[in-house]
């Protein structure tokens, strides 16, 4: 029963996180945004919450416990969803962004609380398998959510965009108000679902788990007294920042890129789902192949090389091929989190908790890199701006090949 509840929570993570791919083009039209970078404030508001809340989340969970912390996270997310109602009624972009930030805040608490259960609810030797199953729950939800929200909020959007150009200001405002109102019912449903799930978690048979104290001493950290004594961790933080950034770019910019190619919205809005399917395929490959056939380091290196190749193809090939290369970048991204995180915290000993919190803060890459992409489109075009992913994947490749061993190479030679 416990693992089913956690699976539902991971499904919620994915569903809420990848709604942003639909919200970006929707809010650009409904709120009359003038610049591409403004629309990517959606991802900024959502992902910057991880940076802000990574350390406070640990403090909150020490006060509430993990089970109550999960309930709290769900209720905070519900408050964020509730804000979409006044935001839609007034077409106030700032309120939409505040709602997204609050949802991201709740999600950061929820993730921090629920992840330990994946380890605890079962035998330690099968923990990796459970982590992969949770990842699939997350990505399946991510594949479904753009289809559901897109069918409601982006329905007939092409015809509306064309007609807006010929309307007088009063007619235009009325049509945009109607468009904005389409988000009210979906987010009421999301809010109610989150509250119901919070109550379900509160009264569920999930056991209370303790927050284990790290060892005061560990042969792994070799007597190092400071978190700054582990250069591989800091390289890993940069790597995770870049990975999350390119993962979000691959999913959340694809609709805008498709629209720039004069593709209609009905066709464009399904590309995020294709990207999530590619990630699911990658997870399944990882479950089968790691560590039986390849190590996590080698898997990360292969994914980084694939990212380099597909990134170049996205930037230079004809548009009808390029957009599929962009979509397939999600396959390259699929095994990166499961590999980067353990490699970055390897050997930290009593500094593991601090290192983990710093890595969670690196999720801010999903806030900043899409903003950079949006800014680059003004001078490089939608396709040319994808050159920015190339140095990101090259750095990830460096971490996979050598960076994860910097400062602790002796531990790998034991």
TrEMBL record:
Cross-referenced InterPro entries: Glc/Gal_transptr_bac, MFS, MFS_trans_sf, MFS_TsgA-like
Stated family: Belongs to the major facilitator superfamily. FHS transporter (TC 2.A.1.7) family.
Name of protein: Sugar MFS transporter
Function: Intake of glucose and galactose.
Alphabetized CDD domains for the sequence: MFS_FucP_like
Keywords: Cell membrane, Membrane, Transmembrane, Transmembrane helix
Main location: membrane
TM annotation in the entry: 7-27, 39-61, 68-87, 93-110, 131-154, 184-201, 233-258, 270-290, 299-317, 323-348, 355-373, 385-408
Pfam families assigned to the protein according to its UniProt record, in alphabetical order: MFS_1
NCBIfam families noted in UniProt: gluP
Record localization: Cell inner membrane
Bilayer topology: Multi-pass membrane protein
């Amino acid at each position: 029963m416990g693992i089913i509840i956690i699976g539902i929570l991971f499904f919620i993570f994915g569903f809420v996180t990848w709604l942003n791919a639909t919200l970006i083009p929707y809010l650009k039209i409904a709120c009359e945004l003038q610049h591409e970078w403004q629309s990517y404030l959606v991802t900024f508001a959502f992902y910057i919450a991880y940076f802000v809340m990574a350390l406070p989340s640990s403090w909150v969970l020490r006060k509430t416990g993990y089970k109550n912390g999960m309930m709290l996270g769900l209720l905070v997310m519900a408050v964020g969803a509730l804000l979409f109602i006044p935001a839609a009624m007034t077409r106030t972009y700032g309120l939409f962004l505040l709602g997204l930030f609050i949802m991201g805040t709740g999600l950061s608490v929820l993730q921090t609380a629920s992840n330990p259960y994946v380890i605890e609810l079962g035998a330690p030797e099968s923990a990796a398998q459970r982590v992969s199953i949770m990842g699939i729950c997350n990505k399946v939800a991510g594949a479904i959510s753009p289809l559901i929200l897109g069918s409601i909020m982006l329905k007939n959007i092409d015809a509306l965009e064309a007609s807006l150009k010929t309307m007088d200001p009063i007619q235009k405002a009325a049509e945009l108000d109607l468009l904005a109102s389409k988000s009210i019912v979906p987010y009421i449903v999301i809010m109610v679902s989150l509250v119901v799930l919070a109550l379900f978690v509160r009264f569920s048979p999930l056991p209370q788990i303790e927050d284990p104290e790290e060892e005061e001493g560990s042969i792994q950290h070799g007597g190092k007294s400071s978190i700054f004594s582990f250069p591989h961790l800091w390289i890993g933080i940069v790597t995770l920042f870049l990975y999350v950034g390119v993962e979000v770019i691959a999913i959340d910019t694809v609709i805008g890129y498709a629209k720039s190619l004069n593709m209609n919205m009905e066709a464009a809005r399904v590309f995020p789902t294709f990207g999530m399917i590619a990630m699911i395929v990658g997870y399944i490959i990882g479950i089968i192949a790691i560590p039986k056939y390849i190590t996590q380091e080698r898997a990360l290196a292969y994914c980084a090389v694939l990212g380099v190749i597909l990134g170049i193809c996205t930037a230079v090939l004809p548009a009808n091929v390029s957009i599929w290369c962009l979509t397939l970048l999600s396959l390259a991204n699929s095994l990166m989190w499961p590999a980067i995180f353990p490699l970055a915290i390897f050997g930290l000993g009593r500094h593991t908790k601090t290192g983990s919190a710093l890595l969670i803060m690196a999720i801010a890459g999903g806030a900043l890199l899409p903003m950079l992409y949006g800014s680059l489109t003004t001078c490089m075009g939608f396709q040319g701006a994808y050159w920015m992913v190339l140095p990101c994947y090259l750095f990830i490749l460096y971490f996979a090949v050598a960076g994860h061993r910097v400062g602790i190479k002796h531990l790998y030679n034991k």
